[in-house]
Write a structure and sequence with these properties.
The protein is α+β, with helices and mostly antiparallel strands and about 260 residues long. It has a 5-stranded antiparallel sheet, with no helix packed on it. The longest helix has 14 residues. It is globular. The chain starts with a helix and ends in an 8-residue tail after the last helix.
């Protein structure tokens, strides 16, 4: 074990006992925290922490725990089975505490004001919108697209509206379109499930799963587009878009909706 790792382990035992941010009352700590956040965190959480590939942090709801020490641990160590990597080897403990201070400063525990009727939005999601055919919510739905059970916790109102109206604006890793051309010239298109130097795995719109070795096909193309329909702005009225987004914002996992 090198000295840096040993130091982090020792500090880990210390911060595990620390509930509150020791820098919380220092002058300019939030400004300093934003400077570090912008470099390390904004690529996933957005320049103002309102979400992107990563969760919207302004909601003040954190899956890994509510204490300052929980936030510290998440930033330092990352979260297993998620895209959240640890930065404990890349930044000092002081900078991590500064980021915690910044995150606390932008947290707004009030639910955002959302136009639209979420009950009507759920009906659209399940019926006319066709969203339920590709997205799972609370164990119900298709698996062509990402699960949305907790999407209201994870993404901002603006992000969700953009995702409905312009699904190609930001495509999450692992959800791009894959087109395989077989040796006989026929083509198959689906959502990426795995891709490396030797093989590809994907699922088509009917839910069929395919796996090919590169040597057995003419070409494999990863396309910078989503298979989600891009015409909701034309298919749905403005009020229906509001309803659909209101429903998505309301999805917060196992919480009871009021």
């Amino acid at each position: 074990m090198n000295l840096r790792v040993a130091f982090l382990v020792a500090c880990g035992a210390a911060y595990a006992q620390t509930t509150d941010n020791p820098l919380a009352h220092e002058p300019q700590v939030v400004t300093a925290g934003y400077s570090v956040f912008r470099i390390y965190c904004s690529p996933c959480h957005g320049i103002h922490a309102q979400g992107g590939r990563g969760p919207d942090l302004t909601r003040g709801i954190y899956h890994s725990g509510e204490k300052d020490s929980d936030l510290f641990r998440t930033i330092s160590d990352g979260l297993s089975a998620t895209e959240m990597v640890g930065f404990g080897l890349d930044m000092s403990d002081t900078d991590i505490w500064r980021i915690v201070a910044y995150i606390r400063s932008v947290a707004n525990h009030e639910a955002p004001a959302v136009p639209g009727n979420r009950a009507d939005g759920e009906k659209l999601f399940r019926a006319n919108g066709g969203c339920g055919a590709c997205h799972v919510v609370r164990g119900r739905g298709g698996r062509m697209g990402p699960e949305l059970t907790r999407i209201g916790r994870q993404r901002s109102l603006e992000y969700l509206r953009d995702a409905v109206l312009d699904p190609n604006k930001e495509i999450l890793p692992g959800w791009t379109a894959i087109t395989v051309t077989r040796l006989d010239g026929t083509k198959l298109t689906g959502v990426e499930r795995g891709l490396d130097n030797f093989s590809v795995q994907f699922m088509d719109m009917e839910g069929n799963y395919y796996s090919f070795f590169r040597a057995d096909v003419a070409s494999i193309k990863r396309e910078d587009r989503s298979l989600m329909p891009a015409d909701y702005g034309q298919r749905l009225k403005a009020a229906e878009i509001d309803d659909l987004v209101a429903y998505l914002v309301s999805l917060r996992g196992t919480e009871t909706l009021h």
